[in-house]
Every structure is written in C-alpha cells, then in structure tokens.
Design goal:
Order of helices and strands: EHEHEHHHEHHHEHEHEHEHEHEHHEEEE
Distance between the termini: 16 Å
Low-confidence stretches: none
Mean pLDDT: 96
Structural class: alpha/beta
CATH topology of the largest domain: Peroxisomal Thiolase, Chain A, domain 1
Length: 404
C-alpha cells in the first residue's frame, strides 16, 4: 500500500479565486455573503448567497472553449490548473496515463439547464444550443479537467449531493494508495445559483433569513454557495523522487449510508463514517486535533453532527477544535467537501483552526468547542473533514501532517 500525499491545491470561492485568498479570508472570518447577481438569480431570491464574484471566464478560456463550458466546468478547470501548477506535475507521456481525474458535483451544468428551460418556456424557443447536453451533463467537469490538463488515466464524476467532493478525493485516495494510479487530480465543483435551483432550495424552508451561524443558538438555516476546490494526490515515493513540496498526508476515508430518510440526518450514519475514516487511517480518536465540520447552520444537521462527534470521539470530543467554514462561504453543495478538505489541509500546514463565524452562543445539544468568531493558533497534528449529504450519504476524510 502506497502512502498518499497532497502536493497541490486550487480554489475558486466566494471569498477568493486562489487557495491563498480563500484561506486568508477563512482565517480572518471575512464573509462572502451578498445578494445574488448572476443572470436571473437576483429575481429568484431575496436571501444572501455565497457567489463567486468577478469571475472572468474570458481570462481563462478562449471563445471557442467557452462554447463547451458551463460555469461549473469553468470553476473546475481553473481550480485544477492551480492545483497542478502548485504540484509541479508534468502531465506528459506515461504519467498522463497514470493520473486520474475524479471530480464531484451535485448538479452539473445548472446554468445551462436553467438557461435552456428559460428559452423554451419563457421565450418560446423552438430549439436549444446544440451543445446543451455536453455542457450540462454531470460528468462534464471531470471530462473538461481531463481535456484541459491532458489527463489520460481514469476520468469520471461522482455525484452524491453534498458529499460529492468528499467521496471524489476519497475514491482517488484509495486508487493512489492501491497503486492503480500514480496521481489523481480530484475535488469538486458547483455553480447552481440559478433561478430554478434557488426556488427549489427556498421551497425546502431551510435557507437562512439573515446569515449562516452553524452550531449557534438562534441559527436559522443555510446559505447557498458555489465554487470549486481541487487537490493533487500523489504516491509518496513519486513525490519524493521529483522533489515535490508535500503539504500533508491523506491517511483515511470513511463512508456510510443512513438508510433511513432522504433529508433528515442520522447520528448513527454520521458516526459510522467518522469511525470508518479513523479505522482506515489506523488512528485513535485522541490523535485528531481539528474537525472541519459539515456544519450547515440548520437545526437538525448541527445537532446530529455534534452528537455524532461525541459518539465517535467519546471524552476526546471536548478537546477537539470544530469549525464550519460554511459560515464564511456558504454551502457550496457538491463543491463543499473539497473546499472544506482544503481548509483542513491548510489548518494542518499553518497550525491555525479557522473560526465558525456569526456564533452567538451554545445551543442545547451543540456543546463542543466550535472555535467561535476568531481563528485559533494551535498545533494540528491531524484533522478530519465531514460531509453528510441528503439521502443519508456520508463521507469523511482524514489527513495528518507529513512526517517523512
């Protein structure tokens, strides 16, 4: 079994379009929430969103390329380019064939779908753009990452709602560890701040009327976000041989299904995924210092996740630093897990637990240390990143500081 390390990170988010800008904003607790401006989205909701502002697609792609790229794929390719550039990988020859592209997304090309429906039903168009299906399909971001970066190994999408981009790096980790590939470019992307999608979320009555305050008293729900995060995973021996900078080591991945309810979270299912990640990593609970929580800001999720952490960590739960970066960037759905895993990696690298912002005080059942409102300097030997999705689809990644 190969040890698996991270050598590159890339981010497009509501608070920055690079890993540095994203991380700086998280540590500072600088919010990315504002009114939607995308297309007809401003007509869809009066709620705040975590929109990627001032994203200039033309700065990254030529006109012919943009004909094939929904916003969701644009984000994925830009983040993947950043990650590969930082890693220093030269994706040529045999290495291109030994590298995987595994990208998670919950919705795929939502902007393309929404625009097509608007044209058909509102404008009475008789036909759609001939590339509508290739732009909108769930696998488009994974395909576009492989095309733009020249990756010729396994390339596919994973779609498991809000756990998509934790499942994707998890599967990639197992593939690199087993030796079926040498490297993987993996993560997630989402761009669904559209008229139709926002109306759907509003109908569920789980969107906040003011801001996102995970685990806090008086929390009122979630805020929809968008963006992408991509990581380069690599066999340790390969990374060492080429002199790559190693950011952290991926050590475990746990998965479970609640098999109970489509939307209601389950403490038992969450705990099984957490314990599965620790078992896969061959780590004891007291080796974990930081948890990047799923932490949506909804009443049910935050209560269940707090219970799952207590169930999995026992007495050590009181010593964990637990925070939700959704309090800064919102819930980026299929991209959320990868954005949060990047935050966990940066916490390990820099020795900083980012804060849970907008926190007003403890709520019954949410009684852990949520790093309220201010980042904390601390040694982070190891961390987990949680994703608990609709459908009871749970995924947890574990990483630790690289130690030679």
């Amino acid at each position: 079994m190969n040890r698996v390390v991270i050598t590159g990170l890339g981010v497009v988010s509501a608070v920055g379009q690079s890993t540095k800008d994203y991380w700086d904003a998280l540590v500072a607790g600088r919010s990315g929430f504002a009114k939607a401006t995308l297309g007809t989205a401003g007509q869809a909701t009066d709620k705040l969103v975590g929109e990627v502002k001032d994203f200039d697609a033309a700065a990254h792609f030529d006109k012919s390329q943009l004909l094939l790229l929904d916003r969701v794929s644009q984000f994925a390719v830009v983040a993947a380019r950043q990650a590969v550039k930082q890693s220093g990988l030269d994706l040529q020859g045999e290495l291109a064939e030994r590298t995987a592209a595994i990208i998670g997304t919950g919705s795929g090309g939502h902007n393309t779908v929404d625009d097509g429906f608007r044209r058909l039903y509102a404008e009475n168009a008789q036909r759609l753009h001939p590339l509508t299906i290739p732009k909108a399909m769930i696998s488009a971001p994974a395909s576009q990452v492989s095309l733009h970066l020249g990756i010729k190994g396994p390339a596919f999408a994973i779609s498991s709602a809000c756990a998509s981009s934790t499942h994707a790096p998890g599967v990639a980790f197992h593939m690199v560890r087993s030796g079926s590939v040498t490297c993987a470019v993996t993560g997630g992307t989402e761009a669904s701040i559209t008229f139709g999608a926002m109306k759907g979320w509003e109908a569920m009555r789980i969107m906040s009327s003011d801001t996102c305050r995970p685990f806090s008293k008086d929390r009122k729900g979630m805020i929809i976000g968008e963006g992408a995060a991509v990581l380069v995973l690599e066999q340790l021996n390969h990374a060492k041989a080429r002199g790559a900078e190693i950011l952290a080591e991926v050590v475990g991945f746990g998965m479970s299904a609640d098999a109970k309810d489509l939307t209601a979270p389950d403490v038992g299912g969450m705990a099984r995924a957490i314990t599965g990640a620790l078992n896969d990593a061959k780590m004891t609970p007291d080796e974990i210092d930081y948890v990047n929580a799923h932490g949506t800001g909804t009443m049910a999720n935050d209560l269940a996740e707090s219970g799952a952490l207590r169930s999995s960590f026992g007495a050590h739960a009181d010593k964990l630093a637990v925070s939700s970066t959704k309090s800064v960037v919102g819930h980026a759905l299929g991209a959320a897990g990868a954005l949060e895993f990047v935050a966990a990696i940066m916490a390990i690298r820099d020795g900083v637990a980012p804060p849970t912002m907008n926190y007003l005080g403890p709520d019954q059942g949410c009684d852990l240390d949520y790093v309220p409102n201010e980042a904390r300097r601390m040694k982070v030997r190891a961390a987990i990143s949680n994703s608990f999705a609709f459908g009871g689809l749970n995924a947890v990644l574990a990483a630790r500081a690289f130690a030679g």
